[in-house]
């Protein structure tokens, strides 16, 4: 076999593996490529017919792989594990995982190109795995809240701080039929995938929940925990405890709750308003108030079972849903634009990273306050202050 | 007359300026297969309406030549660029165009681009002499436009070629 034949065979093999990894049929992919017959793709995958440049570009897009992967990179022998919460058997799961991992890789490339890799100066808390418990989850949550300086309303700052200080990559996709969220670790660092269709307060909670999994990835052997139902349930409960504690810091919540008390009573509206301020669901707040002994468990159960507070909550928070679902993070878009402005990536590659067509790039950037036409490559020489 | 191998950004700009038909009639135009098969569009500045760009009729009647590069040639381009940590990241269409240029270096083809990263990559492949700015390409075809954006100018093109050349050091 000569070099060219060997090269074609390698590409063919990678193409077949990429398609199979996504549980896509030859017929489905052929149809998306506009082939008259699925036999063409079959022949390509058997290396009986060479894949053409424009076909490879389209296949790379369908499989959520960079073209470099097919042309020069080593085949993914071990793909980073994506650990899901409430994962279903929907065939879309694999496709979403690929999109997520591609986003993470793109994000990492942008950080590398723009020399924006974050070296965290933050001393991460030590976790004693031998006695990991709910009080320990709360303690770690407090340490992170304090060291990351999340403030009195952590849900409002958590996302930005996780990205800016810990370089955690965050992506939002429609996960409706696939799960409620996921996390992953790889060469790109740590990453979280959230459901763009969820309410904003639910997404805040999910982010905090996934953050716990990232923090305890090695210690609690997340991969192992998610393969065994018993320990999985326990880990999920610990994650919920952590999320609740980090988003609703004890002293701040107690202080706010006491401030709203009038003659030892608090109205439903006050509870809903408090939940809104803290950026969590009303039920999450109620459970936390029980946990902090602010209200009795019996009373909380009764309130939640009655359903009135839930009805009021839906009415009062209707306008809190954003008009447009989130997708890419602000930091990702900023880095992509920065790389484009410095000619570190081409405009067509920028469009690919943003998941849009080339012709829409200028408009997309303008909608985010960036001008694709301005020469912002102006630098200021200044000593350290 | 040299062939002008156009990148996707140039095609879009020419359409936005209403210069496409004239430009094609005045020059020998080549476009790589990846860009020909890509769904390009632009927004009409007058009406702000989205207009799809269909190159197939001009390819069919021969006024545009479709060129292709095989994947091994493209892999060589990527490997060459990969040697340098400061090499820009380019798209599949730009990669194919550069591979065509490298393969056909003896032929009279000039790569016309207004994209900084593509021009830098061109210089890093030591093919700077095979490139041409949007402004110069317009003049070559006897056309001009009063106010060009920075990216379309000869000055910008030269600046990026210099940057690319310096990246090799």
Total helices of chain A: the number is 19
N→C terminal distance of chain A: 62 Å
Share of helix among residues of chain B? 40-55%
- Following the backbone from N to C, one meets helices and strands of chain B in this order, namely EHHEHEEHEHHEHEHH
The major sheet of chain B is characterized as: 5 strands, parallel
Mean pLDDT of chain A: 88
Low-confidence stretches of chain A: none
How would you describe the shape of chain A? Answer: elongated
Radius of gyration computed on alpha carbons of chain A:
24 Å
CA radius of gyration of chain B: 15 Å
- Give the neighbour order of strands across the main sheet of chain B: 5-2-1-6-7
Instruction: Please give the order of strands in the largest beta sheet of chain A.
Output: 1-3-4-2
Task: Provide the descriptors you would attach to this structure in a database record.
heterodimer; A: 19 helices; 4 strands; elongated; B: about 170 residues; alpha/beta; 5-stranded parallel sheet; globular
What would you note in describing this structure?
The complex is a heterodimer of chains A (385) and B (169). Chain A has 385 residues and is mainly alpha-helical. Chain A has helices spanning 3-21, 26-33, 38-45, 53-62, 67-71, 92-113, 134-147, 154-166, 200-215, 222-225, 229-247, 250-260, 268-278, 282-291, 297-306, 308-316, 330-341, 347-354, 361-367; strands at 82-85, 169-173, 181-186, 189-195. In chain A, a hairpin with a 2-residue loop joins strand 3 (181-186) and strand 4 (189-195). The N and C termini of chain A lie far apart (62 Å). The model of chain A has no long low-confidence stretch (mean pLDDT 88). Chain B is built from 9 helices and 7 strands. In chain B, the strands form 2 sheets. Chain B has a 5-stranded parallel sheet. Chain B has a two-stranded antiparallel sheet with strand order 3-4. The longest helix of chain B has 14 residues, at 154-167. The N and C termini of chain B lie far apart (34 Å). The model of chain B has no long low-confidence stretch (mean pLDDT 94). Chain A binds chain B through residues 3-4, 7-8, 11, 50-54, 56-58, 60, 67-68, 70-72, 109, 113, 339-340, 343-349, 351-352, 357-360, 363, 373, 375, and chain B through 7-9, 12, 32-34, 36-43, 50, 68-72, 74-75, 78-79, 82, 88-96, 115-120, 149-151, 160, 163.
